[in-house]
Amino acid sequence: MKISIITVTYNSEETLQKTIDSVLSQENPGTYEVEYIFIDGASKDGTVKRLEQNKETLSEKGIRVQMVSEPDHGIYDAMNKGIRLATGDVIGILNSGDWYEPDTLKVVQETFEKKDCELMFANIRMYRSNGETFVKKARLRGFQTSRDWNHPTTFVKAALYKDNPFRDLGIHDDYGFYLQMRKQERRIVTVDRVLANFPMGGASNHKSLKACKKRIRDRYRYCYRINGYSRFYFLECVAIEAAKYILG
Q1: Can you give the residue range of the structural domain that contains 74?
Q2: Is the pTM here over 0.90, yes or no?
Q3: Mean pLDDT of the chain
Q4: CA–CA distance, 230 with 40 (Å, rounded to integer)
Q5: Is 198 helix (H, G, I), strand (E, B) or coil?
């Protein structure tokens, strides 16, 4: 199996190394192929230099590296660029600042080979700004909520991503893709173990009334309604934002 990892960067010099190191430290190298694709949005700091510094180390580990640095139209446009470049059987998207557990790719290989799935995702460890952590579980239930789904632990058959690129409409297009796959009744499985780590505090957690309203609108329109889900899901969108605002 060949696994393509995509990392999108923009002025990510300070957070990027931990992400790269987590790919370099994967267990059982050689039992699967790894391709690492970096899509940089023409960073103005030392991001590109750091990528260049890591390129040789990645290559020495047998990891094929592709790198693009040019202006883009946002994070999902950049992700779609990476998807188009990917040559692997399976694609995972790991944002700068997030990192994998040492056995992540081993578990991905085993899950796809044993379960014959088209999409998998797993538990994730969330890091609050005060240093506290908690595990967000991966679940498959009839009622859809992003509280059950974790993008950094999601791996998808390459053909699905290539045939269904991100719509690039709102901030939650990755969740919209997942709901699209649920509606298409794709073969989806969860893995009950932590495969990735996520430091909170990004755009999806920014605490302002204006930002909350935009996230509610985007989630409702471009995740639920565009995929044919009930208007009732507007309440889920409000509840998610209320929980973020109160609990962090």
Answers
A1: 2-247
A2: yes
A3: 94
A4: 37
A5: strand
